[in-house]
Amino acid sequence: MELILWRHAEAELGEPDEGRALTAKGHKQAWKMAEWLDHNLPNSCKILVSPATRTLQTAEALGRKFKVVNELAPGASAQQILTAAHWPDSREPVLIIGHQPTLGQVASLVISGNVQNWSVRKGNAWWIVQREREENTEHYIRAVMAPELLNKAQNN
Fold first, then answer.
1. Residue 128 bridge partners (DSSP)
2. Which of 128, 150, 146 has the alpha carbon at shortest distance from 138?
3. How many C-alpha atoms does 115 have within 13 Å on its Cβ side?
4. Residue 64 contacts by C-beta under 8 Å, 6 or more apart in sequence?
5. Cβ atoms within 10 Å of 56's Cβ, excluding its own
6. Cα 18 from Cα 54, distance rounded (Å)
7. Per-residue pLDDT tens digits for 71-127
8. All residues at 6 or more sequence positions from 119 whose CB lies less than 8 Å from its CB, including other chains
9. CB 110 within 8 A of CB 85
10. Where are the domains of the chain?
11. Do the Cβ atoms of 20 and 57 come closer than 8 Å?
């Protein structure tokens, strides 16, 4: 199984929290990461998105069909995210577009087995893979990508 965690891009401050929109910088972050993801995600990837405005705008940059899942809203637990993704039983890759601190907690739980407060920066994507090898289950990080790194790669 492949689990891709994409934190929404930079958003405006304000209330209500669920209504915060992306900033101009956030739109650029979302488009850059979406381009990278679109080139790397399999066509069969399921995309699950928090109902918050900033996550919806981040998902729209990808230009693929996605499903809004209320259980991914701000304040969700790591276990709620994994349940929504059907981790580790889904055969299809799953992209989750969500929030901190939950995405960092999901990454730590999957990789270390414990919920810790790992930081996933705005606009970043973490690609985690689970595989069976010689009757053992292994987890590894395939990629961690930041929009700033994509800027540098495109400018060279």
1. 3, 141
2. 128
3. 11
4. 38, 41, 45, 47
5. 18
6. 8
7. 999 999 999 999 999 998 888 999 999 999 999 999 999 999 999 999 999 999 999
8. 100, 101, 104
9. no
10. 2-155
11. no
How far apart are alpha carbons 8 and 62 in whole angstroms?
Answer: 12
pTM beyond cutoff 0.70: yes
Tell me the CB-side half-sphere exposure of residue 21, using CA atoms within 13 A: 3
49 token code pair = 């998105």
At the topology level of CATH, where does 2-155 sit?
A: Rossmann fold (3.40.50)
126: helix, coil or strand?
strand
Q: Which residue has the tokens 């930041």?
A: 146
> What six digits make up the tokens of 91?
């055969």
Residues 21-40: what's their mean pLDDT? Answer: 96
Residue type at 50 in one-letter notation = S
DSSP-based three-state secondary structure for 16: coil
Measure the CA–CA gap between 151 and 154, rounded to whole angstroms. Answer: 5
What does the chain come to in residues?
156
